[in-house]
């Protein structure tokens, strides 16, 4: 005869079944890890690094409508429209800290070394100013609209990009304003402006980005003429030189690796150009046109190796490519260049 009354035996059996059920639940397999994806072609095939930069220590990244830059120590700086402002990561993608919270809304940035110290030059679109910051976010100077630069008022000045020339001259693109490029001395004194709205040679329709191009013996300014779908070269005096590449998908920013240039195109693609401006590879090309330039694509729809709204771009010395996208939830991708 059982040592337990029947009701106790049934209770124990039920408890055992419940425990067994819990054990089976706890032992359920984890969802499969996100697998790397390959994208690109020819000599430029990349493999994604899933999860790079995905953890921000509980800090909400906000929309990654900005740029990407790297300091000498290998840290990556990505600007956003969110209250975190600029996110700083280690080269391994681990989140480190944020800087410059009072400058949230930086649209583009570059890091420049001056006398052994590194500084951030940036277009603070939200604040309608060009700024120079220390790497910890401390401001060195800020510049508003030039008195004679073509803007009707300070509110009409909407800087989208800044680049520092070899002699300390600062070039500021009024991309969302007059489409003029303003030239300031190293002492922040306005000198002149060039370009302006239009389709003709030497004009722009949204000079969205600007970089110093040192591939041709003498440094040139390479301007992302977004709505004219082209990249144009100007000399350092602002004289139009030539169109470098045309028929692009609304180019935003550019980064160089040797003789090649990577261009972020907000219509769902990154294009690699050779020194002549000829496309030699495409990365992340999105076949779904409804997702091109679509700020609202949810994180749940993101796919490895596919871009939606490429905006900021940085090409690492080792060939890795980083891309930030104009997205409400934020997205930063890192891809490894395969040998």
TrEMBL record:
Transmembrane segments: none annotated. It holds the Pfam family NHL. InterPro entries: 6-blade_b-propeller_TolB-like, NHL_repeat, TAT_signal. The keyword Nucleotide-binding does not apply. Keywords: Glycoprotein, Repeat, Signal. The keyword Membrane does not apply. Residues 1-26 form the signal peptide. This is 6-bladed beta-propeller. It comes from Luteolibacter ambystomatis.
């Amino acid at each position: 005869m059982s040592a337990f009354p029947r009701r106790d035996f049934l209770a124990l059996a039920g408890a055992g079944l419940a425990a067994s059920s819990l054990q089976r639940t706890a032992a359920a397999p984890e969802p499969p890890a996100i697998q790397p994806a390959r994208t690109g072609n020819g000599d430029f095939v990349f493999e994604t690094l899933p999860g790079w930069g995905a953890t921000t220590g509980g800090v909400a990244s906000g929309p990654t409508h900005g740029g990407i830059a790297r300091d000498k120590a290998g840290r990556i700086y990505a600007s956003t429209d969110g209250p975190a402002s600029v996110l700083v990561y280690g080269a391994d993608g681990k989140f480190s800290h944020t800087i410059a919270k009072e400058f949230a809304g930086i649209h583009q940035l570059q890091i420049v070394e001056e006398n052994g110290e590194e500084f951030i030059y940036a277009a603070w679109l939200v604040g309608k100013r060009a700024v120079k910051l220390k790497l910890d976010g401390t401001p060195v100077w800020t510049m508003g609209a030039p008195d004679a630069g073509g803007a009707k008022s300070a509110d009409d000045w909407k800087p989208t990009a800044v680049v520092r020339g070899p002699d300390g001259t600062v070039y500021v693109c009024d991309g969302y304003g007059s489409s003029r490029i303003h030239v300031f001395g190293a002492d922040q004194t306005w000198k002149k402006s060039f370009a302006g709205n239009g389709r003709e040679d030497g004009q722009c329709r949204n000079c969205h980005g600007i970089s110093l191009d040192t591939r041709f013996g003498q440094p040139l300014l390479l301007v992302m003429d977004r709505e004219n779908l082209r990249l144009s070269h100007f000399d350092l005096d602002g004289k139009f030189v030539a169109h470098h590449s045309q028929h692009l998908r609304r180019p935003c920013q550019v980064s160089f690796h040797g003789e090649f240039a990577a261009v972020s195109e907000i219509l769902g693609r990154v294009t690699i150009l050779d020194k002549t401006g000829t496309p030699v590879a495409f990365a992340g090309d999105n076949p779904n046109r409804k997702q091109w330039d679509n700020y609202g694509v949810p994180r749940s729809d993101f796919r490895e190796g596919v871009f939606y709204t490429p905006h900021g771009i940085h090409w690492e010395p080792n060939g890795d490519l980083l891309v930030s996208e104009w997205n409400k939830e934020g997205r930063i991708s890192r891809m490894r260049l395969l040998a």
